[in-house]
Design brief:
- There is one protein chain.
- The chain contains eight helices and seven strands.
- By secondary structure, the protein is of the alpha/beta class.
- The longest helix is centred in the middle third of the chain and has 29 residues.
- It has one domain: NAD(P)-binding Rossmann-like Domain (Rossmann fold), CATH 3.40.50.720.
- The chain is 44% helix and 14% strand.
- Bound molecules: beta-D-glucopyranose.
- The site of beta-D-glucopyranose has 9 residues, from loops.
């Protein structure tokens, strides 16, 4: 079984950090052309573009804040001009926001998370589907989280946005299926990136986190990225509308290894 994405045109939102960057590099390794979307740190996006080009691949970077529909539409026009369209959307840009109980959280902070994580996801999916449906091919893969399922105190906007991505994925998959377009989500658990650095970089936080993971280790971004490549490839041609968990067993609720 060979996985190849040769010639496929991919866009990775939030492609210059964490899981997004790992997916961008892995897609390029599989032969895809990769557009790295970013909203800050252009120099990191450029570095990834150069790394891909130096390994013989094709890549560009595109700045756009996904929480603005106009800027998303412009990003897709840029992609049309560069490569004539899109085959793979990695709908990945997201933040976890300011930790606060719902009765304390600032409304603007709550809105910011929803606007980036959920509205941004929809805006990008909408633009991608406008292109994929008429060409009768394409795959959209969103980065969800174990927190589309697991409640998380202090992160109500984040969990709600990820649960929203789950239902959006199912509904868009149903709409797009007659046109041979697949829509999927990936739900990472605790993956070693800057988003959760404040947890794994201290012993107490790390110990607590590891208790929540049956495989008893934090995942590497590459472990999510490899699954992303599988899911957007023809190897997964009969998979759509689902969230696939890449979480070391976190959603298996390890506390139930005893008692109950
Ligand atoms: C969050 C991480 C967290 C993980 C497991 C992810 O969605 O972004 O900060 O470590 O879920 O709780």
């Amino acid at each position: 079984m060979e996985i190849t994405l040769t010639g496929k045109r991919a866009l990775v939102t939030g492609g210059n950090s964490g899981i997004g960057a790992a997916i961008a590099l892995e897609l390029a390794k599989a032969g895809a052309k990769v557009a790295i979307n970013y909203v800050s740190h252009p120099e990191i996006a450029e570095q990834i573009v150069h790394d891909i080009q130096n390994s013989g691949g094709e890549a560009i970077s595109i700045e756009a804040d996904v929480s603005s529909y106009d800027l998303v539409a412009k990003m897709f026009t840029t992609l049309d001009e560069a490569w004539g369209g899109i085959d793979i959307l990695i709908n990945n840009a997201g933040i976890d926001g300011v930790k606060a109980d719902s009765w304390d959280v600032e409304i603007k902070d709550w809105e910011t998370v929803m606007n980036i994580n959920l509205m941004g996801n929809f805006y990008c999916a909408r633009q991608a589907l406008k292109r994929m449906v008429p060409q009768k091919s394409g795959v959209i893969l969103s980065t969800s989280s174990v927190h589309e399922l697991i409640a998380w105190t202090g992160h109500s906007a984040y969990t709600t946005s990820k649960a929203g991505i789950s239902m959006l994925t199912k509904t868009l998959a149903q709409e797009a299926a007659p046109y041979n377009v697949r829509v999927l989500a990936l739900a990472p658990g605790a993956i070693k990136t800057t988003i959760n650095q404040n947890v794994w970089n201290n012993q107490a936080g790390l110990d607590d986190l590891l208790e929540k993971i049956p495989l008893h280790r934090i995942g590497e971004p590459e472990e999510v990225a490899r699954m992303a490549v599988v899911l957007v490839s023809d190897v997964a041609s009969y998979v759509t509308g689902r969230t696939i968990f890449v979480d070391g067993g976190m959603t298996d609720y390890p506390d139930f290894a005893h008692g109950g």
